[in-house]
Design goal:
alpha/beta, four-stranded parallel beta sheet, four-stranded antiparallel beta sheet, globular, about 400 residues, 8 strands
Length: about 400
């Protein structure tokens, strides 16, 4: 079977005709194309280091597209930067689609940009947040951020964060984003209009998937639990691979940040104002004590979290910095028991919530609390073998020091 060099990237070939005077085959690019073709044919791994100007994206896209067309395979291309994704989707791929054009006029391949679920707007959740805004949001800044999302929702065509204006309080997006934990699936009244579901349907029809490194390794970590996001694929190309090690360690290690823990707690009950999700919740007749108990459990978890992260800050001498944790048991784990109890309390509350969509929200919050308890346990006991454990504190503009507990 003729190689890509013999059929596509040759003087007088389809790419040369499209590029005109800008066309040239560089020796390094030709060698890379041949190496990529061989690796794909034999299902081998290939590591390529090439300087600027070699034409790396063409050198892997041409054999990848040829493989897609001739063998009906699916290829994932993962990049580190948005700039490279935009170059691939707006410049390189359209040119190659034209170069590989079929005689019958049909698309030779389908390319799709794949984004993580949290990038997509949930119309149902935004509607719920809008209807309960007086009970959910504690101040004017958060309300202004909600109104920005509402105005943008009327105009957006893809429903992704890439077109959302900057928010005064970015955390408000959590109230409106698509989330696997509280997705109602086909029960959702906005299922057919759902931006995420539309993107997923497009992705499943595509055979050239473009994503970032974080998306790829997130999917890889989920596949270990048999819950991957990407469809079945035959080849993976990691561009800008010098960044891969850092991204992979983030997804295969364990991390617990003070910001994440506090965000969950203030989402449930905002201290001193009785606002937040639990304050907006309606329960069945006679079940108010269960709701009150969940609120108390949230406040108890908040006190446990404060003690836990204060302990971490002390380890770094109350200065921004990093300290390695030598062995298991160095850090007292107040947080796991408190968050296990919180997860259980939210799960019980789910059974008596008046509205169906609240049951899904409670399920998601319960899973978040349980995940925090489990991760704190793993970190304090150093339960993941082969990892290094450390505490890192950073300066926060309004809240002093923020602590992160990490293993990788």
């Amino acid at each position: 079977m003729p190689s890509a060099l013999e059929t596509v990237l040759v003087p007088g070939g389809p790419i040369a005709r499209l590029m005109g005077d800008d066309f040239e085959v560089r020796p390094q690019q030709a060698r890379m194309i041949e190496a990529v073709e061989r690796a794909m044919a034999s299902r081998d791994s290939l590591l390529v280091e090439a300087g600027t100007g070699v034409g790396k994206s063409f050198a892997y896209l041409v054999p990848a597209i040829k493989r897609i067309i001739e063998h009906n395979e699916v290829v994932v291309v993962a990049t580190n930067t948005i700039a490279l994704q935009e170059q691939l989707l707006s410049k390189d791929i359209p040119l190659l689609r034209e170069a590989f054009k079929r005689e019958d006029g049909k698309e030779p391949f389908k390319a799709e940009l794949v984004k993580g679920r949290g990038n997509y707007l949930s119309l149902r959740r935004l509607k719920m947040a809008s209807e309960r805004q007086d009970k959910l949001f504690p101040d004017e800044a958060t309300l202004r951020s909600l109104h920005v999302i509402e105005e943008w929702a009327y105009a957006t065509t893809d429903g992704t964060l890439s077109t959302l204006p900057q928010l005064e309080r970015p955390g408000v997006w959590d109230r409106a984003q698509s989330d696997a934990g509280n997705c109602m699936g086909r029960k959702c009244p906005t299922y057919e209009k759902c931006f995420y579901q539309q993107a997923r349907r497009r992705m499943e029809k595509a055979n050239l998937l473009i994503c970032n490194h974080a998306m790829f390794f997130s999917d890889l970590a989920l596949r270990a639990q048999e819950t991957g996001f990407l469809p079945k694929y035959q080849h993976v190309i990691l561009d800008e691979a010098h960044n891969v090690e850092d991204v992979a360690s983030e997804h295969f290690g364990v991390a617990l940040s003070e910001g994440r823990v506090r965000f969950l707690l203030t989402t449930l009950v905002h201290p001193g104002r009785r606002k937040g999700f639990l304050g907006s919740l309606l329960v069945e007749s006679g079940e108010q004590p269960l709701l009150e108990r969940a609120m108390r459990t949230t406040m108890e978890a908040s006190r446990a979290a404060e003690e836990f992260f204060d302990q971490l800050v002390e380890l770094t001498g109350r200065r921004p910095g990093m300290v390695r944790i030598a062995g298991p048991g160095t850090i007292a784990n107040q947080i796991s028991p408190a968050f296990k109890e919180l997860a259980l309390s939210l799960k019980r509350l789910k059974d008596v919530a008046l509205y169906e969509e609240d049951k899904f929200e409670l399920s998601a919050y319960s899973m978040r609390a349980a995940a925090i308890a489990e991760q704190a346990e793993l970190l304090c006991a150093q339960g993941v073998p082969g990892c290094v454990y450390w505490v890192e504190t950073t300066k926060h503009e309004t809240h002093g020091l923020r602590a992160n507990f990490v293993s990788s």
